[in-house]
Every structure is written in C-alpha cells, then in structure tokens.
C-alpha cells in the first residue's frame, strides 16, 4: 500500500491548537497510526500486536472515534489476508468491512477515516465488490484533500496518496489530463512520500 512513510509525527495542527485533550488525542492517534503502518511495512507478528494494542488504547480512551474505528477495520482486513483458516478469514474480513463502513457512516466528513476505507478497499480482491465505493470515496477526497492537508485535518502523505490513487482511477477512465493534474498535485503536496514518489513516476509515464 502506498500510504506508509513519514506519518509518525503528524498530530494535526487544528487538534494541537484546540487544547490539552486534543493534544493527548493527537498523540495517541499518532502512536496508533505509526503502529498500523509498521504492520504494512514490516508485516510481522510483533508489529501486528503493537498495532492492535495501540488501537485498543485509542479506542478505550476515545470510544466511538471514527478514525480509530477505521484503522481497526483495516487492520482486521490485513489480519484476514494472512489467515489461512478460511472460516476465520471470512469472519475477520466481514468484521473489518463493517468497521470501515461504520466509521465513515459515523463521521462522513472525517477525511482520514474515509481515506483508510478507500485505500483498504483499493487492495481488496474483486469478489468483495468494493470498487465503485472505493472510487466514490477517492472522488470525494480528491475534491478536498489538499485543503484538508493545509488545514491539518489530513496528513500530507495521505493527501498525496489520495491524488495518486485518484490519478490511477482517471487513467483507467482514459482521462489523461485529469490524471496529470492529480499526479502533479500529489507531488506538490508531499514529494518525498511514497504516494508522491509513485505519482511522479506515473506522471513521467504519461508525458
């Protein structure tokens, strides 16, 4: 997944400006986010346990938080992908998808929760039938991700990844001009992030 990278210190400018409790929330979210992306990059049992523990702490401290719920759902799907027991795989996947959908339903304007659902759905096999929803999520995010990153509502690396994914969708729709704009935006927002670097490569291929 092209959403890993230097996300570990992002806390959210608006959250930090809002007071001590918001700063505490941002700190817990940063720890959970760090642990989650280590599952993606390290892909080992220790990273998975750390991610579950960090998310459990976040959810216990902030019950019902949509972003925590989205990361929890995505982690369930990552666990399912490594589960050889078919009966557990389907159970974990169903629970993960339900958490992702519940997170977005609870906070439809929360960009990070919607991004995690979209990015997770992007990597699911076709038989999950999530393509249309995934593309709809990225279409909505692409209309606001750069501004959300500027305002501190979305990590710049995730905003760049949003435009990288959206550019790939537009390529699939034969909208090369739109794709160039999306890839260029990804590079402008976070050129050193995985999404920004991949967008730069894809932009070069379109020229």
Notes on the structure:
With 207 residues, the protein is mainly α. It has one domain (13-206): Serine Threonine Protein Phosphatase 5, Tetratricopeptide repeat, CATH 1.25.40.10. Helix content is 75%, strand content 0%. It has 11 helices and no strands. It has helices spanning 13-17, 20-42, 45-61, 66-81, 86-106, 111-122, 131-142, 145-150, 156-172, 176-189, 194-206. Helix 5 (86-106) runs antiparallel to helix 6 (111-122), helix 9 (156-172) runs antiparallel to helix 10 (176-189) and helix 9 packs parallel to helix 11 (194-206). The protein is globular, with a radius of gyration of 16 Å. The two termini are 25 Å apart. The model is unreliable at 4-20 (pLDDT under 50).
In short:
This protein is mainly alpha-helical and 207 residues long. It has eleven helices and no strands.
Write the layout of secondary structure elements.
Blueprint: H1 13-17, H2 20-42, H3 45-61, H4 66-81, H5 86-106, H6 111-122, H7 131-142, H8 145-150, H9 156-172, H10 176-189, H11 194-206
């Amino acid at each position: 997944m092209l959403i890993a990278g230097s996300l570990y210190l992002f806390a959210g400018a608006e959250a930090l400006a809002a007071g001590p409790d918001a700063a505490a929330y941002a700190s817990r979210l940063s720890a959970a986010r760090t642990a989650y992306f280590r599952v993606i990059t390290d892909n080992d049992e220790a990273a998975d346990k750390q991610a579950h523990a960090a998310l459990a702490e976040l959810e216990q401290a902030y019950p019902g938080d949509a972003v925590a719920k989205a990361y929890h759902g995505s982690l369930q799907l990552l666990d399912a992908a490594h589960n050889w027991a078919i009966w557990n795989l389907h159970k974990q996947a169903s629970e993960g998808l339900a958490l992702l959908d519940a997170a977005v339903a609870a906070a439809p304007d929360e960009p990070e929760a919607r991004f995690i659902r979209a990015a997770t759905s992007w990597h699911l096999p076709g038989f999950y039938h999530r393509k249309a929803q995934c593309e709809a999520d990225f279409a909505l995010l692409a209309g606001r991700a750069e501004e959300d990153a500027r305002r501190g509502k979305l990590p710049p690396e995730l905003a760049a990844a949003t435009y990288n994914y959206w550019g790939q969708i537009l390529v699939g729709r034969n909208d090369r001009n739109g794709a160039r704009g999306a890839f260029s935006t990804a590079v402008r927002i976070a050129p050193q992030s995985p999404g920004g670097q991949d967008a730069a490569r894809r932009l070069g291929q379109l020229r």
